[in-house]
Amino acid sequence: MTTPEDVFRRTWPIVVASTARLTKDLDLAEDCAQEAVERALLTWPDGVPDNPVGWLTTTAHRIALDRLRREATLRRKLPLLIEPAADDAPGPTDPLRLVFTCCHPALTRESQVALTLRLVCGVDVAAIAAVLLTGEAGVARRITRAKRKIAAARIPFRVPPDDELPARLDAVLKVVHLVHTAGHVGSRTGLQDTDLTGRAKGLARMLVRLLPDEPEPQALLGLILLTEARGPARTDSDGDLVLLADQDRSTWDRPLIRRGLALSTAALRRGRNGRFALQAAVAGLHAVAPTWAETDWAQVVTTYDALMRAWPSPVVALNREAARSRLPGADLNAVLCKIDDLAPALAGYPYLPAARADVLARLGRSTDAAAAYDDALALTTNPVEQRFLARRHTELATPEPVAGRVPGSARAVRRRAGGRRPE
Amino acid sequence: MARYVFLMFDAEDWYDTADEHSVVDEMRLHEEFMAAVREAGAEVVGGEALERSSTATTVRRSEGGPLVTDGPFVDTKEALGGFYVIDAPDLDVALRLAKACPAGNVEVRPVMELPDDAG
What is the pLDDT of residues A53-65, one digit of tens each? Predict the structure, then answer.
């Protein structure tokens, strides 16, 4: 049975977006949508009405009109969102406008994430604070500031024109991907119980539906499904992290992999070789490999080469080196040099020393590998990752004591609490 | 329409090297920019080029009364060298114009809209 909560979640962006059109003010639109939901909770105990979207939208609009009328004389006159043109009727693309407004490049990435989660997904401030690893008060201030900027600087409420669409869409997809990654990490650490991966998937689906001609939303949805398909295999019965190399591939969700592959292949066929299409391609290559050893590493490396062109970043370069180290007859010393070259750009990134450690171990340099695992351990605050790295450390050929590295130790907890600067 | 101020920040060595030719070149760039503004459905409603920041005088509030100091309020390597006041339909148009503006760095600030009776 559909619960009112399901309905709220599904309809929230439509209600906020269409009310924003009426109020020309995101703040007021959000308030009215919230009040409509509260009224629904009071009047829907016997069941959800036949047209819940219509019910909520009409109620939110009525509340908005009441308030606008009441405040007409008091309100400082700020024509906030852009006036819709005559032929620009409210419609199914309203949530898309809302997403593009929330992810406008004139806002910081954190503000984009916070606004999208709040206004498009209806996630509460406490859960957003968990995603951004910051305090609730800070998130609330950030959202208020961002909404004020949208109003004062006149960030338009529209889908960008074709010539700006790829760049603007990229910002939206980055936000969705970030929400998905946060949900993924969160589910591992039990930091939060909000279904962030589900929210990210919902956003990706919406983008696919509303921008059917764009390959990258399809690719992102494919990437999300391919990641989700491996979900249960990523942790063992104790909740510990299991590397792709060691995962039980029989537990992967095959139908989900097929859907993910279909989406990412369709995106790749468009030939634009976007960042998410290539990332999904890498995920797909792993998903179809019968075993870790039988992975098509040459193709993985080629895909990373293309990814470096689409999205040059040191993290991609590191992943490419890790893949190169798996090629038959790979020159591990050369790979190690390349990884070391990336160290300045990736200071503080725990996967760099972890990748180093892995290569060092395969070179038989277990003492150096142990030191590299120690470096990696010192850089992560995630208890699951810490346990994983500690385990890798102890599994080295010449085991050495893991002195002072008790996972979840007081030191790590302190670092977690104090490591991020509150706003 | 919304009103924006474009604050143009640049290195100041231009003032040392500028001759008649470079001033003419610079003015042509700004004329092209103003044409682009009109083409975008926006309008330049004001703007000035400023003398170099070392000619500025700053009056600061302090406990002992206003304090007059030589130089700009904030001394930066790239200094405020001029501004435009531009009416544009929205921030997207304003940012597109800022990208076309002949200046090293452009800060785009919305002008506050005051209630009509605030005079």
Answer: 888 888 998 898 8
Q: Smallest CA–CA separation between B107 and chain A, in Å? A: 11
Inter-residue contact A206 to A266 (CB < 8 Å): no
Q: Per-residue pLDDT tens for A39-55? A: 888 888 777 788 888 88
The pLDDT of residue A26 is above 50: yes
Residue A46 CA, chain-centre distance (Å), reads 36
For position A124, what pLDDT does the model report?
Answer: 86
Closest Cα in chain A, distance from residue B110 (Å): 5
CB pairs under 8 A between A and B: 32
Position A72 scores a pLDDT of 62
Q: What's the length of chain B?
A: 119
Let me know if residue B56 belongs to a domain. yes
Which of B92, B106, B108 would best serve as a mutation to test chain A binding (most A beta carbons within 10 A)? B92
Task: Mark out chain B residues that contact chain A at CB-CB < 8 A.
Answer: 2, 4, 89-92, 94-95, 108, 110, 112-113, 115-116
Residue owning tokens 């709040």:
A118
> Please, are residues A244 and A286 in contact by the beta-carbon 8 Å criterion?
yes
Distance CA A250, CA A263 (A): 22
Give A361-401 pLDDT, tens digit per residue: 999 999 999 999 999 999 887 777 888 888 888 888 654 44
A156 touches chain B (CB under 8 A): yes
Residue window 124-153, chain A: list those with CB within 8 Å of chain B: 152-153
Given A304, A327, A352, the domain boundary residue is A304
Which pLDDT score is estimated for B96?
95
| DSSP 8-state assignment for residue B110 | E
**Do A221 and A207 share a domain, yes or no?**
no
CA–CA–CA angle B113, B115, B119 (5° rounding): 100
**Residue ranges making up the domain that contains B81:** 2-113
pLDDT > 70: what percent of chain A? Answer: 86
CA distance A148 to chain B (A): 12
Task: For residue A164, list chain B residues with Cβ-Cβ distance below 8 A.
Answer: 92
ipTM of the complex: 0.85
Among partner residues B91, B112, B115, which is closest to A154 by beta-carbon distance?
A: B91
Look up residue B5 and give its amino acid: V
Average pLDDT, chain A: 83
Among residues A47, A60, A48, which one has the least CA distance to residue A14? Answer: A60
Looking at the structure, tell me whether residues A283 and A322 fall in a common domain.
no
A376 or A189, which is more confident: A376
Low-confidence stretches of chain B (pLDDT < 50) are 118-119
Rounded to a whole number of angstroms, the distance from the CA of B91 to the nearest CA of chain A is 5
Contact A156 B91 (CB under 8 A): yes
Domain range holding A246?
214-304
d(CA B16, CA B108) in angstroms, rounded, equals 27
